[in-house]
Write a structure and sequence with these properties.
It contains 17 helices and 7 strands. It is an alpha+beta fold and 348 residues long. Among the domains are: 120 residues, Orthogonal Bundle (Helicase, Ruva Protein, domain 3); 63 residues, no CATH class. The chain has a 5-stranded antiparallel sheet. Strands 1-2 form a two-stranded antiparallel sheet. Strand 6 and strand 7 form a beta hairpin. The two termini are 33 Å apart. The relative contact order is 0.13. Keywords: Signal. It holds the Pfam family SLT_2.
Length: 348
C-alpha cells in the first residue's frame, strides 16, 4: 500500500537509506533491563534511559543514524491503553464457544464470497505454493474478517509502548521494534504510516514485522509487498509462510480418533504441541483412528470440547502443525480447518 512520506520523516528515510551502501543484516537486540525512572506516560520515550540505550544499540548496528532514531522516538506516542489491553486476564474458551465466534456460518459464508471474488489469483497461488486456496481464505477470515478489521494503531506507537512499557514481554517487542525499523528502511516508507493491531500485527494476515521481512511476497509485481490492500500479495505471503513452516501439498490437517481416556493418554493430550509421536505409537497406546493414516506419520493428540463436559478427540498431522506455527492455539488451527472445509467442500 503506497503511502506518502511525512515531510519531517521523508528526510529521515532518505538519510537512513544513504547511510550505508551495504544492506544491514538483522541483529539480535539484547534485552534492556528496566531501570528506575519516571514512567513513560510522564516522560515520553526520548527521556527514558532504556530508550536511549536502545537508540545507541540500533545506531551502532547500522539500522539508522542516531539522529534519525532520536527523531523517530520524539514523534512516537506512548499508548497506555495498549498496556491495559495486554494486562487483561486471559481466559481459555472451550471449542464450542471459540467455534461460534471464529468459524460460524457467517465466517464461512464470508469466506465463500471472498473466495469467489478472488478465485483466479487464489487458485493460482494455491497451485504455485501447494497450499489450498481455502486455507489462505480461512486464515485471512480469522485474522481480520477478510480485511475488514486490520487494526488502527500506528506501529510507531504500539511497538515502542510494548518494548519499553510492558516488561513481561519487553525482549520480544524490542526485537520486533528492531525488525520494524529495518522494515521501514528497506521499504523506504514513512514509519508513521504503518497501522495494525495493538500488538503490532499488520495487514490482512496480521504479520509481525519479523514475519513481514521474512515471508511477505510482492506477488502482483508492483514493487511493494502490500499485505494491507493487495489480495495477491496477501495470499502469496500467507502461502509462503505456511510452506516455509512445513506445509505439505495434498496433506490433511486433522483426523478424528476414538479412545478411552487413560492417565497416559490424558497426560499426552496436555503436553505441548509437538509432533513427537507417530501414528503407530498412538495406536499402540489405544488410540483408534477413524480414518486411514500411515503408521509412520507424526501426530499430536488433542481434544475439542464440543459441549460442556463433552469431548471429541483428534490427531493433528503435519499440516495441522504448520498452521499451529502461525498461531499457537489448537482452537485456532481447528477453526482454520472448519472454515476451509466450509469454503472448499473438502476434508482437510
Amino acid at each position: 500500500m503506497k503511502r506518502k512520506l511525512a515531510p519531517a520523516l521523508s528526510v529521515l528515510l532518505i538519510l537512513a537509506a544513504c547511510s550505508s551502501e551495504q544492506p544491514v543484516q538483522p541483529v539480535d537486540s539484547p534485552k534492556i533491563t528496566p531501570e528506575a525512572s519516571l514512567p513513560l506516560s510522564e516522560t515520553g520515550f526520548s527521556q527514558n534511559p532504556q530508550v536511549q540505550r536502545f537508540i545507541r544499540q540500533q545506531a551502532a548496528a547500522g539500522v539508522m543514524g542516531e539522529a534519525q532514531l532520536q527523531q523517530f522516538f520524539a514523534q512516537s506516542v506512548y499508548k497506555g491503553n495498549i498496556i491495559n489491553i495486554m494486562n487483561r486476564p486471559g481466559t481459555s474458551r472451550p471449542w464450542y464457544e471459540f467455534r461460534s465466534g471464529n468459524a460460524g456460518a457467517g465466517k464461512i459464508n464470508g469466506g465463500r464470497r471472498f473466495h469467489q471474488q478472488y478465485r483466479q489469483v487464489l487458485n493460482q497461488v494455491a497451485r504455485e505454493y501447494g497450499v489450498p486456496a481455502e486455507v489462505l481464505v480461512a486464515i485471512v477470515g480469522i485474522e481480520t474478517n477478510y480485511g475488514s478489521n486490520m487494526g488502527s494503531f500506528r506501529l510507531a506507537d504500539s511497538l515502542p509502548t510494548l518494548a519499553f512499557g510492558y516488561p513481561r514481554r519487553s525482549e520480544f517487542f524490542q526485537q520486533e521494534l528492531h525488525e520494524f525499523l529495518l522494515m521501514v528502511k528497506e521499504e523506504g516508507r514513512d514509519p508513521f504510516g504503518f497501522t495494525g493491531s495493538y500488538a503490532g500485527a499488520m495487514g490482512m494476515p496480521q504479520f509481525m514485522p519479523s514475519s513481514y521481512r521474512k515471508w511477505a511476497v510482492d506477488y502482483d509485481g508492483d514493487g511493494q509487498r502490500n499485505i494491507w490492500g493487495s489480495v495477491p500479495d496477501v495470499a502469496a505471503s500467507v502461502a509462503n509462510y505456511l510452506k516455509a513452516h512445513g506445509w505439505q501439498r495434498g496433506g490433511r490437517m486433522m483426523v478424528p480418533v476414538a479412545l478411552t481416556p487413560t492417565p497416559e493418554l490424558s497426560a499426552l493430550i496436555e503436553e505441548k504441541t509437538t509432533l513427537n509421536k507417530t501414528v503407530g505409537e498412538l495406536r499402540q497406546m489405544g488410540v483408534v483412528l477413524l480414518e486411514d493414516v500411515p503408521d509412520h506419520e507424526k501426530a499430536v493428540l488433542f481434544r475439542l470440547e464440543t459441549a460442556p463436559g463433552q469431548y471429541e478427540y483428534y490427531i493433528g498431522l503435519n499440516n495441522f502443525y504448520a498452521v499451529w506455527q502461525y498461531n499457537h492455539s489448537r482452537l485456532y488451527v481447528s477453526a482454520v480447518r472448519e472454515i476451509a472445509n466450509g469454503v472448499g467442500g473438502g476434508k482437510l
